[in-house]
Amino acid sequence: MKKAIKNIFLTGIIAIIPVGLTSYIIYLMIRMMDNLLKVIPPRYHPDQLLPFHIPGLGVIFTLILIFIVGLIVKSYIGKKAVDLGEWILGKIPFVSGIYIALKKLAETIFSDKSQSFRRVVLIEYPRKGLYSVAFVTGLSKGEVQAKTEDVMLNLFVPTTPNPTSGFYIMIPESEVINLTMTVEEAFTLIMSGGIVTPSDNKHKQKKQK
After folding, report:
1. Domain residue limits at 74
2. Which stretch of DSSP H or E encloses residue 13?
């Protein structure tokens, strides 16, 4: 009887935790976007104009704002304004380095042709005999590649259970082991500390095809 009750309780926990955490994260994101509505003057705020509050209106506002900014930046005047802003930021010590790094990161991740975080590999890290899952962020270029004999890959090695933090390393392409798991499956594997692993059968079927 006790074992049956325990199993039911554990089943409930397993069902609730993923749904609860996912819902909470979505709630925080929507709440953060709703806070953007505070930039609207009080007299024009939707809550003042409408007889009722619309939950998640900040999401719509954020999407519209992003779209409008994209249109402006694509225009001739917008490009000139961005160039002027970048020129000013480029004259400010320390700030210029942060801005350039963030801009290149955003361009790399959101580019349609970007291969960042689309390839999962296995490497011997942090030493021989120990293996870690890593994400390929691109090919090493410039001085780093020029001073090494092998083709070097840029890798991001995430930490557990928070895969948003990790280490940047460079490694010869010949020393990585390619994996067939998707990026989503790799993140799940890392966040769970190896408890949740991708289905072996699915990957065997992929290899047979």
Report:
1. 49-110
2. helix 2-34
| β 152-158/131-139 pair status | antiparallel
Does the residue 173 lie in any domain? yes
Count of domains observed in the chain: 2
Question: What are the tens digits of pLDDT across the range 105-129?
Answer: 676 666 655 556 778 999 999 989 9
Residue 139 placed within a domain: yes
Q: Is residue 20 part of a domain?
A: no
Residues 190 and 124 in one domain: yes
- How big is the CA angle at 133 (ends 127 and 138), to the nearest 5 degrees? 100
Strand-pair category, 152-158 with 120-124: unpaired
Residue 157 pLDDT greater than 60, yes or no: yes
pTM of the predicted protein model: 0.58
**Among the listed ranges 35-39, 91-95, 163-167, which one has the minimum average pLDDT value?**
35-39
Q: Phi/psi at 131 (nearest 5 deg)?
A: -115, 145
Nearest residue to 119 via CA among 100, 141, 109, 134: 134
